[in-house]
Amino acid sequence: MPSRPPRSRTNLYGLGRPGLRRFFEEAGAAPYHADQAFRWLYRLDRLDPSAWTDLPLALRSRILDGARVEEGSIDDRAEAADGTVKCRIALAEGDAVETVLLVQSGRATLCLSTQVGCALGCRFCLTGRMGFLRNLGPGEIVGQVALAKRERALGDGPFNVVLMGMGEPLRNYDAVIEAFRLLTDPEGFGLSHRRITLSTAGLAPEIERLAREPRRPRLAVSLNATTDGIRDRLMPINRRFPIARLREACRVFARETGDGFTFEYVLLAGVNDSDADIARLARIARAHPAKLNLIPFNPVPGQLDFRPTARERTIEIRDRLAAMDVRVAIRWSRGTEARAACGQLAVERGPSSPRAGRGSAPAHGRRP
Length: 368
Ligand code: SAH
Ligand code: SF4
Hints:
Layout: E1 10-11, H1 17-26, H2 31-43, H3 57-66, E2 67-68, E3 73-79, E4 85-90, E5 96-104, E6 107-111, E7 115-117, H4 126-130, E8 132-135, H5 138-149, E9 159-163, H6 173-184, E10 196-200, H7 204-211, E11 218-222, H8 228-234, H9 243-257, E12 261-267, H10 275-286, E13 290-296, H11 311-323, E14 328-330, H12 361-365
Parallel strand pairs: 1-2, 6-9, 9-10, 10-11, 11-12, 12-13, 13-14
Antiparallel strand pairs: 3-4, 4-5, 5-6, 7-8
Helix pairs in contact: 1-2, 5-6, 7-9
């Protein structure tokens, strides 16, 4: 596009069917044109309204006059030897987030951000240390998929989506649900809802709200500790929703949906990986219809408080848990040399970067 349309115009990218219908109604157009636009935006990935050939020409020029269609753009990418790609996405409305594309045995998984930064301040998490900047809109969430789809590594096959990037998805509930609708709509991205997983630090009321949605992503709960003493220290949100309250929400989720879920457990040497921790972890995991993912800690730059559990101990813990009838797997971090592991989406461009002054993310994400 020759020049950028003014920000004051509605950004059509990210509007769902109801939002598009409202826009077209206000433009004096028939509602089915909104559905055509929906398909162009999310199914066909054509963002230029002048190419929306099944809409009348006059309507297309009215759209061009009254709206804009803007998603972000990938302004940096780092690729690891194993094919993991980390993309830094400059958002159309300002700021930047990261999207990680992991490819494992031919299967691609996209790790999406839902907020710029995060307010929950978990001690082991780089995003938590950034603090909270703002929520992403639905278009900014699904835009990460559209941009990644254009990356060679995603291929044409089916892929999974995990909401495990920057931010706490249940703190941005409405936008995340709208994004989920855009992703699963057959006229949108057409993804199966079984391929989408939402990871939460444990907002109990929102987990229960999610359980009542007619359709919802799979659930992953970041447990990370087995006593309130340890969890309070690692994850301040535990003071509001302690383990018993969180487990109650997990029970509600399983009961209302009939679905199992996943516990995630980041292993931190000397903090949550003792034999007593593992025994408690087994008791908790077995008491729910839950799988358990052990996540090796990805050291956070400048953060000396935590060390990863040794590889041999990690394997021993996995084997012990399996022997105690827990369905357990280790999620080895991939792409660490690209700083690309899910859950450690460092926005770490330093002042030497040519673009460091643009947007607000670099200032917040800069290494201390
Ligand atoms: N806010 C959500 C989703 C984003 S974090 C949540 O907390 O679940 C996604 C996952 O990454 C969480 O399980 C979190 O515990 C984990 N994580 C955060 N920092 C990490 C690190 N430095 N190394 C390994 N995993 C980390
Ligand atoms: Fe936020 Fe999740 Fe990081 Fe905690 S682990 S600070 S909830 S992104």
